[in-house]
Amino acid sequence: MDLKQQVADRFREVNGEHPMTIADDAYVSRQFVVLDDLCAAHGRDPQQVRQLMLERRLPLPGYLRSDGAQMVPADLFALADQAGGPERLADWFAAHWADRAVGEAEWDAYLDGQYVCLHSVTPGTIVRKTELVAAISAAAAELDANPVRDADTDDRLARLHALVDELDALEPAFTGYDRLRFGGPTSRDRCVDAVRVRHPRRR
The pTM is what? Predict the structure, then answer.
């Protein structure tokens, strides 16, 4: 079996078997690049890159387009370059978390290629997204529990929307395929769109 097929099989093991619609394909083509094209632009051998993916030294593609194209972020090689090469990436990546076990868990998630929830996937943006999701969830729950409108409510609402706006800037729009593979609403659905509907800005 060739490496391209092995990567595709591994992708389906991680993400399940879900159809890509025309809208999914269009979204992915706007947000990501074909692995072979990215390798050509950077002077990389796509087969060697696929081997690194299978060895869990680079992340899997974020999507398989319906024509079989393996779609990756344009900055796929950036973190490995910062770390000094794919062989150093795991330690470099996990070291960004004070708790080594948390860093290693995030490394595993990164390798699965499922961090399609960020425009730029770095340890810093992963940490910040986690912080924002937790803070937004807590702040929205507090407003749900205390809906009385007063000056304090207005201040809490303003702080909530500042957090939502920051998360909005970090995250892309997602697509229908993501809701299938993740088994429900995305973080944008829950922590940006739904919160803005439930707690609109004061006019």
Answer: 0.90
What DSSP state is assigned to residue 63? E
Strand ranges for the chain from DSSP E: 33-34, 63-64, 70-72
**Calpha distance 42→59 (Å, rounded):** 17
Digit-coded pLDDT (tens) for 1-24: 699 999 999 999 999 999 999 999
**Contacts for 181-189: CB closer than 8 Å, 24+ residues apart:** 181/15, 181/16, 181/18, 181/114, 182/114, 186/117, 187/117, 187/129, 187/133, 188/117
Q: In what order do the strands lie in the sheet with 33-34?
A: 33-34, 70-72, 63-64
Q: What does residue 63 show for φ and ψ, rounded to 5 degrees?
A: -150, 155
